[in-house]
């Protein structure tokens, strides 16, 4: 009887050891899989409200919320770093950053050097002027002094109207500095993305500014997440973008920042 009990006890010990090892092995595999996903370095220029800006040292904006949603949808953790506009491109070119979400318009010229995600936002350039300005179209900018953010599609759009090396195009490091030039009477107008312009006018009623659109001259644009060339992250985040659009997360974030419904049909037509 004692021998039988000893044999049974020994068998139970082996079963417990095998079960524990199997469970431990499964847990370790899962942990390794999670750990294998690096923390992504995501760079931006946090001087472009309502897309990305600093509020008492905290980064906030449409792109900031979209990145948080994409992180959840993709399973990737990330660190969002404000580096400035020109360094965004430099970091991705040198591959010191993994990606950038910073209201970056997808252009054929940029696609020669970088990869882009599927579009996540539709934009178009707009003109900001004082309320009493007689500027009504882009053609009215001829002969005027126009402030732009350097290296943006706002600059490129104005150059198409006024000429590439026109001295009346004033280029600034940030769009906020371009707007300050207008307010200080150093420029007749500012040209930048409509999301930024409309947001500024709405939140600064005392500045007596208005926006003027000209869709016959300014072409619609789409923002995309930008990566170094041949990035393996593109298909991952393309799926994540589709997921947050399909489950309603995108619309919720869009309405939070722009107080209206997004045109999903026009946006998804580009995917």
TrEMBL record:
Ionotropic glutamate receptor C-terminal domain sequence ranges: 39-260
Keyword vocabulary terms for this entry: Signal
Superkingdom of the source species: Bacteria
Domain Solute-binding protein family 3/N-terminal residue range list: 39-261
Signal peptide per UniProt: 1-23
UniProt cross-references to PROSITE patterns, sorted A to Z: PROKAR_LIPOPROTEIN (PS51257)
Pfam families linked to this entry: SBP_bac_3 (PF00497)
CDD domains, sorted: PBP2_Arg_Lys_His
This protein's record includes keyword Lipid metabolism: no
UniProt-recorded name of the protein: Basic amino acid ABC transporter substrate-binding protein
């Amino acid at each position: 009887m004692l021998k039988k009990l000893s044999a049974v006890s020994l068998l139970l010990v082996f079963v417990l050891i095998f079960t524990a090892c199997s469970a431990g092995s499964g847990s370790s595999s899962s942990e390794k899989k999670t750990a294998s996903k690096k923390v992504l370095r995501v760079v931006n220029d946090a001087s472009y409200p309502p897309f990305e800006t600093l509020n008492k040292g905290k980064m906030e904006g449409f792109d900031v919320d979209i990145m948080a949603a994409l992180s959840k949808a993709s399973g990737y953790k990330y660190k969002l770093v404000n580096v400035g506009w020109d360094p965004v491109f430099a970091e991705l070119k040198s591959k010191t950053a993994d990606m950038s979400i910073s209201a970056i318009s997808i252009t054929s010229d940029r696609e020669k050097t970088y990869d882009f995600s599927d579009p996540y936002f539709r934009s178009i350039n707009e003109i900001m002027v004082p309320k009493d300005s007689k500027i009504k179209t882009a053609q009215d900018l001829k002969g005027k002094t126009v402030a732009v953010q350097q290296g943006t599609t706002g600059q490129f759009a104005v150059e198409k109207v006024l000429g590439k090396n026109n001295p009346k195009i004033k280029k600034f490091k940030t769009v906020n500095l371009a707007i300050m030039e207008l307010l200080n009477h150093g420029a007749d107008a500012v040209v930048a993305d409509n999301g930024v312009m409309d947001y500024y006018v709405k939140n600064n009623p005392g500045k007596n500014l208005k926006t003027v659109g000209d869709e016959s001259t300014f072409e619609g644009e789409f923002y995309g997440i930008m990566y170094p060339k041949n990035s393996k992250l593109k298909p991952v985040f393309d799926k994540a973008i589709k997921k947050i659009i399909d489950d309603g997360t995108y619309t919720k974030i869009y309405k939070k920042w722009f107080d209206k419904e997004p045109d999903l049909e026009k946006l998804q037509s580009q995917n």
